[in-house]
Amino acid sequence: MDVKTGFFYLFSLVLLFAAFRVVTARNPVHAVLFLMLAFSQASGVWFLLQAEFLAITLVLVYLGAVMVLFLFVVMMLDINIDTLREGFWKHFPLAAALGAVVALEMAAVLMGGFRVAEPQAAALAVGQVAEPVSNAKALGILLYTEYLMPIQIGAVILLVAMITAIALTLRERKDSKAINASLQVRVRAADRLSIVKVAATQAGVAPQPPAAPEENK
Predict the structure, then answer these.
(1) Rounded to whole angstroms, what are the CA distances from 191 to 120, 149, 185, 188?
(2) What is the model's pLDDT at position 126?
(3) Count of structural domains within the chain
(4) In this structure, is residue 109 part of a structural domain?
(5) Which of 25, 116, 164, 216 qualifies as a cystine partner to 31, CB 3.0-4.6 A?
(6) CB-based burial label for 136 (10 Å; 0-12, 13-18, 19+)
(7) CA angle at residue 138 from 7 to 128, to 5 degrees?
(8) Does position 44 have pLDDT exceeding 70, yes or no?
């Protein structure tokens, strides 16, 4: 067994253990941590498959952004575990059916096998020398040549969704205490300071002596 095969078995075993602990962990924070471990091991497997772009994307997007955000949300929320477990057996048949469907699909793919293309061998067969091209470079060339329009359309849709989310968040509300920056820029010193003319000294009022109580006649 070579080094690459050893790393594959190591990453796979840790990945399976982490995925199992995600489902069985009682603490939601521990489940999120095991999920982050599973993503990191999946990234290592993708590196072994020479899919470095997908591996780096998995680390940057999921481990660096989504999972960290999810971890902070889970830590801030007060989740009642007993309430979540009340409907476990109620939804178990649907979950078992979906799991069986996924398992059958994976079994069908594994039994059918994968078609591994060998571009260098094909190029040598026709008398050409294939230059080594990295996975990220080949993917970038493909995205920005053949799939340029779908990429641009997807970018515009994401931009519109981001602007819409910001507009919905910053809409005017009666209970909002937001400050209009344009009004702050146009403000003048005379609007901020009001000068009131007050006399320097004023005559004090002499205190009146208390009235003597009347004697009973």
Answers:
(1) 76, 53, 12, 5
(2) 47
(3) 2
(4) no
(5) 25
(6) middle
(7) 100
(8) yes
